[in-house]
Specification:
elongated; about 0% strand; mainly alpha
């Protein structure tokens, strides 16, 4: 649903849920950790493992970011 520029001016500025922000920061930590592990392994099985771990952490990050953005829109 698109809104006009004029409607955007009248939206309230809302602070995101602190719990969601904490979860978002944890997701960032998981992304960094998986990336770090991925860069240092040579075993093909572990490479696959960290690829899946990285993808899962990225998807969780995207999910949480959308929830935070939806909170701002609904107010």
């Amino acid at each position: 649903m698109k809104t006009s520029r004029q409607e955007k001016k009248f939206r309230k500025k809302v602070d995101p849920d602190p719990d969601l922000l904490e979860q978002l920061n944890e997701a960032i930590g998981h992304i960094d950790s998986a990336m770090n592990h991925f860069e240092h392994v040579v075993d093909p099985t572990l490479i696959d493992c960290y690829i899946y771990e990285l993808k899962a952490a990225q998807l969780r990050y995207q999910f949480l970011l959308k929830r935070i953005k939806n909170q701002e829109v609904q107010v």
